Every structure is written in structure tokens, then in C-alpha cells.
């Protein structure tokens, strides 16, 4: 299952793709990590998909990642008289906490946290921003507002508050039950929705611990303001452009995406770019040119992974969509300008020995024309540090941990291989050369660069670099 590209593909599983035959076709078309969206489906549904993916993993003999995406809090209006009300720009309207009649002066908003946090001048965006209102006044039980952008407000439509930090946990009771269930199944990553501030990540970490990697979904403006602190606490980030594109102006999203990708590279944390990447392929066999360009832009930015949502979950062409994304990635990475663009956004090297060793390994391997860098890693940290450099050659990560191998399915340029623990330095070199040969990364007479942490098995100790020749196993 070796991929001849560096960026990874995450595909959401849904009714269009949940059967074992389609999952297998998706994997062969290019999926590296499957996303289970816990906003939809039952626990039994997700358990069946999880079991099918693990059976597929055993069949193909290659590690497959599984990402659990939590629903998070949903802020919605309540029930309206007649099911909907029409509002026009300049019109005065009122939201009420309780006792609503459901007309324009008593729109039910059953979320006390909004009434506690909102201030005059704040905006409420309803139905993904199709209706926009600005707060003009408030009491304990009502919020007066003026319509900025008119339209229809109908039952249970979502509400976004881009200028307001709500005193609400990102983990609902449903999310907590879902996390416990996902960890029991054995998911590799948990994606946390509705992250507003660093303490939200701390709260989720208490639940997840080290049983899975924790991904913070960046979809709130307040999260952008605290991105560095969030990155220190999370294991990875998802640029969730759906809600983010509602809460900040559309024209700012591309620049923010680049900032987040660069920050993740600097922090050596994987980053997924998500939402509407090939959206037209939900109902059409080919994407628009703009969508193909959108995927390519994420690859030029240096994203670790790009994600499909409805395209693979409910679309008519899930396998074709994955194959298309695979082709776009490979074509982009093969373009003559790709290397120069990716290197132009190269983050500065942190002044620590582990990062310096990893960066030196990438530079050395390129200088001597090595076909691959071999990284021995128990936690995935050594491979992540090398991937941060975005070297022009594959990273073969050898690990004794099945869980680590699965998590590395999100890492840029990394091919994970399971192998037992090594007990000595010489055994490490011999194992590295053997696996590189068996997995097709190196041929006799090739030089490979081997990176590891000594003593073996201690996470985060990237401190050793060696060059070895495949033919006679001589050190250089």
C-alpha cells in the first residue's frame, strides 16, 4: 500500500461508502485515514464501519488511520409559528430565552449562554450566514437586534456568533459518551469541535488522555487568536473551513488557512485542510476547475492532509472523488514549482537537538541522493520532526507500535512499517536496511539515512543519525 505522493487523504464514511466493498475501493483509490462523523449515525453504525476498516487493514497488511469527529455544541433557534419568519434589512427583531410565540419579536433562542455573553454590536449569523443581525440592546431574557442581511429564519436553523466567546464546554453529554465509545473501539484520532480557547483542549485531553491523538478543529475566530497555545496542547489541527468561512469574511479564509498550516509546520503538528474541497463531485463525476485549484493550493501550502466530507459520505461518486483527489495531489507534487513554493514557506528550525538532527537528516539525504529516510520511532515524534522539513524523498517510519503506525497515516510523506523492538545500535541499522529493501524504498548499493533516538523506546529523543549502504551494510 505504498503511496507515491506525500500529502495524505482523509475520507468521511457515510451511507454512500460504509459497506466493506466500497471501503476497500476507497482505500485502493487513495484513502489514508477514514473519518467517522459522530454528528450522524448510531454507535452500532460506527462500530460496523470500524470493524470493516480493521478487517481491511488485516487484509492489505498496511496500517489505516481512523478519525472520530465529534459533533460539539449546536446553537440553534427554536420552533417558529408557521415554521419560518421572513425578515428584511433594517427591520427590528427580538430573540427571547423562554415563552416564545415564534414571531419576529419573539424568536426562540433556547441557549442561556448566549444571553450571558452577547453585547451590543455583536453579530448573530443564522443559517450559515444567510441571515445576519446585529445586537442593539438586551435584557436578561431578550436580545434586540437589527437585521443587516435579510432572508428566511426557519425552525432549528444554526446560529453562529463570530464576535462572542460563549461560556460553554466544547463537549456535550453526547460528545462525552461518543468519546468513551470511540476510545473503546480504538479510534486513532479524536477531532474536537467548537474549540474557542486553549482550556477547551485541556478539557478534552482529560477525557482522551494518550489513548488517541487529539485534533483541534479551528472553526471559531477566537481559536485563531489563540492558535499557538492551542497547538501546544493539541496533537494536530483541522482547518474546518465550513464554520470558519461563516464566522470570518470569505476573503480572509485563504490567508488564515496559510497561517494555520505554517503554524502547524512550525510546531511539528499535522494539519488537515477540510470542507468543500471537491464539493461538486457530490453529484457530478468531475470537479470544477476552481475545486481542483483549491486542493492544489492546500498541497502547495504544505498541508499534511486534505479531507473529503459529503463527497465520500453521501455523494454519488465516492471512489471517483478519492481517485480525483489522489491525481490532483500527485500532479501538484510533481510540478516544477512545487518544491520551491513549499520551501519558501519553510518554518525556521527550532534550536533544539532533536529538531536539528531531523533537519540535518533531511538535508543529508537529499545531498547524497538517498532514496528514503528511515526513522525509528516509538511515538511518531521522530517522523513528525523529519516531515516538518518537507524533504523531497519519502520517510519510512519503523515502529513497534500498531497505534503509532495508524496515527502516522496523517503525517506528510510518512510510510509506516510495523517491526519489533530493536535492542542494539547495530540491530537498528540492520533492521532499517532490511525494511527499506523489503518495502521497495531502496535497492542494493543505495545509501539510506537512518534517524533514531537513543536509548531506544524513549519517546522524543531524536538524537542519532547514520548513513548506511544497502549492499554491504557498511557505515559511511
TrEMBL record:
Residues annotated as domain Pyruvate kinase barrel: 5-322
Cofactor(s) the protein needs: K(+)
Keyword Lipoprotein: no
Enzyme class: transferase
Alphabetized Gene3D superfamilies for the sequence: Phosphoenolpyruvate-binding domains (3.20.20.60), PK beta-barrel domain-like (2.40.33.10), Pyruvate kinase, C-terminal domain (3.40.1380.20)
SUPFAM superfamilies referenced in this protein's UniProt entry, alphabetically: Phosphoenolpyruvate/pyruvate domain, PK beta-barrel domain-like, PK C-terminal domain-like
GO molecular function: ATP binding; kinase activity; magnesium ion binding; potassium ion binding; pyruvate kinase activity
UniProt cross-references to InterPro entries, sorted A to Z: Pyr_Knase (IPR001697), Pyrv/PenolPyrv_kinase-like_dom (IPR015813), Pyrv_kinase-like_dom_sf (IPR040442), Pyrv_Knase-like_insert_dom_sf (IPR011037), Pyrv_Knase_AS (IPR018209), Pyrv_Knase_brl (IPR015793), Pyrv_Knase_C (IPR015795), Pyrv_Knase_C_sf (IPR036918)
Domain Pyruvate kinase C-terminal: 355-467
Residues forming coiled coils: none
Stated name of the protein: Pyruvate kinase
